Amino acid sequence: MPYTNAQKKQHIKEVQTYLYAISLFDTRIPQVIPDGFYGSETATAVRAFQREYGLTDTGNVDSATWNKIIGVYRNYLNSAPCPLNCFPSQKYSLKSGDDGELVYIIQAMLEGLRKNFDNFPATTVCGNYNADTIKAVKMLQQKVGLPQNGIMDCKTWNMLVTCCEHIHKTI
Fold first, then answer.
1. pLDDT in tens, the chain (171 residues)
2. Sequence-distant (≥ 6) Cβ neighbours of residue 39 within 8 angstroms
3. Cα separation of 32 and 18, whole Å?
C-alpha cells in the first residue's frame, strides 16, 4: 500500500508536535508550530535538535533522529515535576479586591494548609482576594513572624510556598 500524502502530513505533524513540546523544556530548540508541512522552520528546529543531541546535522528526520526525538520527549514527560514560578516579582503584592489566576493558586495553597492544621481558617477558592483570604493570610503571617497585614507580598508568598512544600515532604 503506498504512503499517502495524508499519512506523510500526519507524520510531519507528529514530529513537529514532539519538537514543540521539547522546545518548551529546551530553549535551544526553536519552536515550530505543528501544521503538517515540512518547511524551513521545521528543518531549522530539526537541525538545532540534531546539533544539541549529538546527531548529524542534516535537517532531515532519519530513524536515528526520530528515535532520539521520541527518547528526549519521553524523558521530559517522565522527569520530576517542574516547579511553578508564578509570583510576578519581589515588589508585587495582592490585596483585598484583587482577582485572577494567582489568587486561585494562593487560595488553594491556603486551603491545603487548613486541611493540615486544625486552627487554620477556611479559604474559599474563588479567585477573589476576599475577607476569607485576608484572614488566612494574616494567620499565616502570624505563624511565620511576618507583619499581619493580610497582603500577599513576596515574603509572605515565600513562606506560603515553604510551608506547603514542608507539608508535602512530610506526607
1. 678 999 999 999 999 999 999 999 999 999 999 999 999 999 999 999 999 999 999 999 999 999 999 999 999 999 988 777 899 999 999 999 999 999 999 999 999 999 988 889 999 999 999 999 999 999 999 999 999 999 999 999 999 999 998 876 665
2. none
3. 10
Of 104, 96, 140, whose CA–CA distance to 121 is shortest? 140
This prediction's pTM: 0.65
SS3 of 131-145:
HHHHHHHHHHHHHHC
Query: Which sequence spans correspond to the domains of the chain?
Result: 5-77, 101-170
CATH class of residue range 101-170: mainly alpha
